[in-house]
Amino acid sequence: MDTPADKAETQNPSPPAAAESAADPISGLPLLELIDISVHYGAVVALNGVSLGVRRGEVIAVMGPNGAGKSTVLKAIMGLAPVVAGEVRWRQARLAAATHEIVKEGIAFVPQGRRVFTHLTIEENLEMGCLHLKDKTEKQRRLDEVMRIFPILQGKRRDLASAMSGGQQQMLAVGRGLMAGPDVLLLDEPTLGLAPIVVKEVFDRISEISETLKTTIMIVEHNIKGVLDIVDRAYVLDKGRVVFTGTPHAIRETDILTQVFLGKSGAS
User: Fold this and answer.
1) What are 59-85's pLDDT values in tens digits?
2) Helix (H) or strand (E) holding 34
3) Helix (H) or strand (E) run with residue 173 in it
4) How large a percentage of the chain has pLDDT more than 90?
5) Which has the closest alpha carbon to 239: 260, 210, 223?
6) Quick one: pLDDT at residue 114?
7) Which of 71, 79, 88, 226 is at 20 to 30 A from 39, Cα to Cα?
8) Burial of 14 (0-12, 13-18, 19+ CB in 10 A)
């Protein structure tokens, strides 16, 4: 993915006041961004003035050690975190929709832990992802598309989700997110707890979703090596702040990941 221009894009690892604006290459304006977002859980500061964004068609990663605030970024977008300052902007306007209405805006969220409906079949689980959709033809088209991307689901579509392996349930959870027809797909730790061979399969499918459906993806992920192989850019968080942003090449050329995972980044 790296180009000569990408290789020159190495930014200062000290916490920036605000991340670069992630411009939509079609309109020159941001698609989805957080601007100076702070999230507090009582006395605990989960995010402290975080700014980051995503361009149309990009795959970006949000990385960092446990407790850095990675998952809170996605929860802030979805209205699931107590935001005390800053704002989330969607298509250049403040995102003010209620959590259960955000999917209609074009943003789908796949949380940690898969959370499939084990008492429902695979097909019924997928249909739960587009309850608001009344067009039966479009619903069937989306089902066919998800089955094409995740062929393992096709042969088991009448089986209960409880009979699936952990990796299959994760693919089902991602497929359910796609059923909403999102412009942006938010993925929270999609490979957590999966065997290495399944991790590769999940990353391959995420790449396919980006390439064939042109879906913009923001992914929180602990598997650093695997995720850097599939993203265009990444944000590194530590102690609730963005401490670095750049291409995979730029990140690999620095020791920022070693610094934050060993607690030496200097972020406060």
Assistant:
1) 999 999 999 999 999 999 999 999 999
2) strand 32-41
3) helix 166-178
4) 70
5) 260
6) 74
7) 226
8) exposed
Q: How many Cβ atoms sit within 10 Å of the Cβ of residue 145?
A: 17
Spell out the CATH class of 4-261. Answer: alpha beta
Grouping H, G, I as helix, E, B as strand and the rest as coil, residue 205 is: helix
Distances (CA, A) of 181 to 9, 142, 235: 32, 8, 26
Residues 6+ apart with CB under 8 A from 140: none
Supply 56's token pair: 């149309």
Distance CA 36, CA 152 (A): 41
Token pair, residue 197, equals 């061979």
The pLDDT tens digits for 197-249 are: 999 999 999 999 999 999 999 999 999 999 999 999 999 999 999 999 999 99
Strand partners, 23: 30
One-letter identity of residue 28 = G
Contact, 189 vs 145, CB < 8 A? no
17 has a pLDDT exceeding 90: no
- Please provide residue 202's backbone torsions phi and psi, each rounded to the nearest 5 degrees: -65, -45
What residue ranges do the domains of the chain occupy?
Answer: 4-261
